[in-house]
Amino acid sequence: MYYMNNNIKLFYEIYGKENKKEILILPGWGNTRKTFKSLIDTLKKNYKVYIFDYPGFGESLFPNKDLDIYDYSNLIYEFIKDNNIKKPSIIAHSFGGRISIILTGLYKIKIDKLILIDIAGIRRKSIKRRLKTIIYKLKKKIVIFKKNKLKYLNDLRKKYSSNDYNNLNKNMYITFKNIINEDLRKYIKEIKEETLIIWGRQDSDTPIKDGYYIFKKIKNSKLIIYNKASHFVYLEEKDVEKKIKKFLTN
């Protein structure tokens, strides 16, 4: 099914039955609804579950304009209003966490419970990151001495850019930069809902220190860490589904 708002087309699916408590699943950047099939199968017996393909991924085409995190968040916000969804629970992974932070910390929508899985949204200007940027810019300048300039620049970009950036369609580069440059820490402390934070200690995309930071800032929260898991802990640890179901039920 599709939802249209502000000339942006959003693909979504619904699982479960009517008259059940509602859950929104907000996937990570580049991930589609398909990676959550197991979790949906666990939840749909007792809940009405909504899951989305963001613009640019899955069945949702990217619009003919650049976006930022507030455009994505507003799209979900309007979807909730237009579909008369009352006090849902939210399950968010990675990029979906950015949206959930804005929905709850900035827009302050009324939700039941919040589950954050290895979420993004904390932007630190570390010395290591600054040094990496400087080296990248310096190496770009010597392209004039290279015979195959295009290949050199492509190889350089692949080496110094994240996997998310390298896997983008060309028309989404500015949107991606808009999103990752936005530091959402100012909204995290405004989240008041009961929150379950799940993290993989081996996560190299969103480090474990981010999980500790969020746990410290959200007073009504619980942190569960899986020592051997990475950024996709919900796919690697079957126990995650049990923890989520228990948290939603209690």
What does this structure look like?
Helices cover about 40% and strands about 20% of the residues. It is of the alpha/beta class and about 250 residues long. It has an eight-stranded mixed β-sheet with strand order 1-2-4-3-5-6-7-8, with helices on both faces. A hairpin with a 2-residue loop joins strand 1 (about 1-5) and strand 2 (about 10-15). The model has no long low-confidence stretch (mean pLDDT about 90).
Annotation keywords:
250 residues, alpha/beta, Rossmann fold, 2 domains, 11 helices, 8 strands, 40% helix, 19% strand, globular
Describe the secondary-structure layout.
Elements: E1 2-5, E2 8-15, E3 21-26, H1 37-43, E4 47-53, H2 69-82, E5 89-93, H3 95-106, E6 113-117, H4 127-141, H5 149-160, H6 163-166, H7 173-180, H8 185-188, E7 194-200, H9 208-217, E8 221-226, H10 233-236, H11 239-249
Parallel strand pairs: 3-4, 3-5, 5-6, 6-7, 7-8
Antiparallel strand pairs: 1-2, 2-4
Helix pairs in contact: 2-3, 4-5
Quick recap:
The protein is α/β, with parallel strands linked by helices and 250 residues long. It has helices at residues 37-43, 69-82, 95-106, 127-141, 149-160, 163-166, 173-180, 185-188, 208-217, 233-236, 239-249, and strands spanning 2-5, 8-15, 21-26, 47-53, 89-93, 113-117, 194-200, 221-226. The protein has two domains: 2-123 and 183-249, Alpha/Beta hydrolase fold, catalytic domain (Rossmann fold), CATH 3.40.50.1820; 127-170, no CATH class.
